[in-house]
Specification:
The protein is an alpha+beta fold. It has a single domain (about 25-200), classed as Inorganic pyrophosphatase (Inorganic Pyrophosphatase, Alpha-Beta Complex), CATH 3.90.80. Helix content is about 20%, strand content about 30%. The longest helix is centred in the last third of the chain and has 19 residues, at about 185-200. GO terms for molecular function: inorganic diphosphate phosphatase activity; magnesium ion binding. One of its GO terms (cellular component) is cytoplasm.
Length: about 200
C-alpha cells in the first residue's frame, strides 16, 4: 500500500511545464486575510507570520513560484538593470502577486498564472522582486499579457502596498521600488530565480 504524503509546496511542485510563460503559484495569502501567512520552509505547511498591520491588506492573491530562490543570479540581474547597494537576493522563493476577479477564500492552494511584469523592490540591501501575474482563464484579467495594459491606478495600488506594508506610522520607508518592468523582464527574473534554486538545492 502506498502511504499518503503531501508534496512540499516549495520543493515538491514544479515551477510549471511552460515556465516562465505560465507558472505554478502556491498561494499563501488572499485579500480577505487579516493575518499574514507564509510557508514554513521545513514542513511545507502555512504558518502565521504576523497580523496585517493597520489598513495594509494584500490587494491580490499572493504567494510564490515553487522551485525558485532569490540569491546571486537575482541580485546580479537587479544590479545589471541599475539598482545600487544590493548585496544579495532575499534568500526566499520568488514572490508573486496574482490578479483575479474571483473570490478565493483561503490560501494553501496551487494555481497557474501568466506573468505580466513586476516590481524591482530593494529591501535593506536585498533584491526582493515581486512578480505580477494574472490567473489563467480569469474573466477580468486573463487576457492581459503585460503590466502596461493595466490601468495606472491598479499599478499604483499594488506599488503602494509593497512600499508600506512593513511600515509603522511615521516611520521612514524600509524599502524602495527601483523599476516597474514588463512581462519580458519578469520572465528573466523567474529564470534567474530558477538558476539560484538549482545552485542552492540541485536541479
Amino acid at each position: 500500500m502506498i502511504p499518503n504524503f503531501k508534496a512540499h509546496p516549495w520543493h515538491g511542485i514544479s515551477a510549471g511545464e511552460n515556465s516562465p510563460q505560465v507558472v505554478n503559484v502556491f498561494i499563501e495569502i488572499v485579500p480577505s486575510d487579516t493575518i499574514k501567512y507564509e510557508i514554513d520552509k521545513k514542513s511545507g505547511y502555512l504558518k502565521v507570520d504576523r497580523p496585517q498591520q493597520f489598513s495594509n491588506i494584500i490587494p491580490a492573491l499572493y504567494g510564490f513560484i515553487p522551485r525558485t530562490y532569490c540569491h546571486d543570479e537575482v541580485m546580479q540581474l537587479a544590479i545589471d538593470n541599475g539598482s545600487t547597494d544590493v548585496e544579495t537576493g532575499d534568500l526566499d522563493p520568488l514572490d508573486i502577486l496574482v490578479l483575479s476577479s474571483h473570490n478565493i477564500h483561503g490560501g494553501g492552494l496551487v494555481m497557474e498564472a501568466i506573468p505580466i511584469g513586476g516590481f524591482k523592490m530593494i529591501d535593506k540591501g536585498e533584491a526582493d522582486d515581486k512578480i505580477v501575474a494574472v490567473m489563467v482563464g480569469d474573466h477580468a484579467f486573463g487576457h492581459v499579457r503585460d503590466i502596461s495594459e493595466l490601468p495606472d491606478a491598479e499599478v499604483k495600488r499594488l506599488k503602494h502596498y509593497f512600499l508600506t506594508y512593513k511600515n509603522l506610522p511615521d516611520e521612514p520607508a524600509k524599502c524602495r521600488i527601483d523599476d516597474v518592468y514588463g512581462a519580458a523582464h519578469a520572465r528573466e527574473v523567474i529564470e534567474a530565480s530558477k538558476r539560484d534554486y538549482a545552485s542552492k538545492f540541485g536541479g
